[in-house]
Design a protein that fits this description.
This protein is an alpha/beta fold. The chain is about 40% helix and about 25% strand. The strands form two sheets. Strands 1, 2, 3, 4, 5, 6, 7, 8 and 9 form a nine-stranded mixed β-sheet that branches. The radius of gyration is 26 Å and the shape is elongated. The structure holds adenosine-5'-triphosphate and magnesium ion.
């Protein structure tokens, strides 16, 4: 029995002249997603990608799961690469989908014929397959409007491909087709979701994390590595930069007004993020901010922060409420890790009454008490490669 996974292109089908570039990146991402499973054989025809493995005992279930996270795919399914001979293919269909039919009450058959020379046309294939299945599984009945199961028989390139309803793919655009963004990754719930959202729009992701030892622990750092690893299942392998931020935070605390501590700290974070982004050729910084969530996420505070940005700052969650973000964090399996209780550097020295509408002139005046350039130049940054282990 030859199995294959069929993947249907998503938004790529709308692309015009540069479609090839999108396809090439998509195929590379597909190959990476199944690289640990066996020796993949990957082909494309008519907006469909066919993935099979040279090894007969390859884990197709795991491959399907990995591929369901690849952006740029609208739907996917395991399928049987059945015989070209119609009667043999019908028997194979009954056997291959037996479990599905046993648990269903109604079905319909959808036939597609890419191979126009085939001896039967699509309506004939549908009618004959329906008859055969009704006879083999007498408890079934046909429902062409709302069937519990749709059986697909697709004739192409010397085979009849047999499968039941496909599952939804990850959607979006292939990660890497919309450039490269640097995600500010805290240990919280929001920022991994923000990275996921931008990867879904085709961005390749690198990440930067700010830590403040001894106020933040090694466990907090490990938590961020784990989040980055989970995110990489969607975005692909990434580089994680870690910024040693203690000295800067202490200087702000010692020299600047307490109520402006957070906004000044965030301006330092953004300056450093922009600098790292430029050095790794990322063209945007991504954050998990959501309007009004905390004092530093008001429009006024964001204005003060963005005044130091040298690159666009993408905030894909700006209009999302917390529950929507939590739902997505469950979807990408980061929630349980995000709620592990370790300190983030943002919560170190947090003022009791942060300004929700700081004035840029006040912020700049306070900041002038520090030697901004020198502090940023002295900061220690380490770098590690993160993949999904
Ligand atoms: P999150 O759940 O992502 O931590 P939050 O609600 O706790 O978000 P803040 O602490 O104000 O919000 O942080 C807002 C954004 O700033 C985060 O989503 C993240 O992008 C960035 N950020 C905060 N702390 C850090 C950090 N230690 N390292 C890197 N980025 C950070
Ligand atoms: Mg946070």
């Amino acid at each position: 029995m030859n199995e294959v996974i069929l993947l249907k292109y998503g938004e790529i089908v709308l692309k015009g002249l540069n479609r090839r570039r999108f396809e090439e990146i998509l195929l590379k991402n597909i190959r990476n997603a199944v690289s640990g499973i066996g020796t993949p054989e990957i082909q494309t025809a008519q907006s469909t990608v066919y993935v099979s493995f040279a090894e007969a005992d390859a884990d197709y279930g795991r491959a399907l799961e990995n591929l369901s996270r690849v952006f740029g795919i609208s739907a996917l399914t395991r399928a049987l690469q059945g015989s070209y001979d119609f009667n043999t293919a019908l028997q194979e269909c009954g056997d291959y989908l037996e479990e599905v039919f046993q648990t269903a009450g109604t079905f319909k058959v959808t036939a597609k014929r890419a191979d126009k020379k085939y001896c039967l046309n699509s309506p004939q294939i549908g009618a004959l397959a329906g008859e055969y299945l009704l006879e083999k599984f007498p408890h079934l009945s046909v429902d062409v409007h709302t069937p519990q199961v749709t059986v697909f028989l697709e004739v192409r390139e010397g085979h009849i491909y047999i499968h039941a309803d496909p599952v939804r793919g990850a959607g979006g655009l292939p990660a890497g087709t919309s450039g490269h963004g640097l995600l500010m990754l805290s240990g919280g719930i929001d920022s991994p979701v923000a990275g996921y959202r931008m990867a879904k729009r085709g961005m390749r992701i690198s990440a930067v994390h700010f830590e403040s030892p001894p106020y933040t622990s090694e466990r907090a750092k490990m938590k961020v590595e784990k989040l980055a690893s989970k995110l990489s299942l969607y975005s692909g392998e990434m580089i994680l930069y870690t910024v040693h931020f203690t000295e800067i935070q202490e200087q702000i605390r010692n020299c600047c007004r307490e109520d402006l501590f957070t906004v000044i700290m965030r301006r330092f974070m953004l300056r450093i993020a922009c600098k790292i982004a430029a050095s790794c050729k990322a063209t945007a910084v991504i954050t998990g901010e959501s309007l009004g969530q905390v004092a530093s996420q008001t429009a006024g505070a964001i204005l003060c922060t963005d005044a130091v940005a040298s690159l666009p700052v993408f905030r894909p969650l700006i209009g999302s409420d917390k529950q929507e973000i939590i739902d997505l964090s469950y979807h990408i399996d980061t929630f349980e890790t995000s709620i592990e209780p370790y300190e983030d550097c943002c919560t170190v020295f947090t003022p009791k009454h942060p300004k929700t509408s700081p004035r840029l002139a006040d912020v700049e005046k306070e900041e002038a008490k520090l030697n901004v350039e020198e502090l940023i130049d002295a900061v220690v940054i380490t770098k590690e490669r993160i993949s999904h282990a």
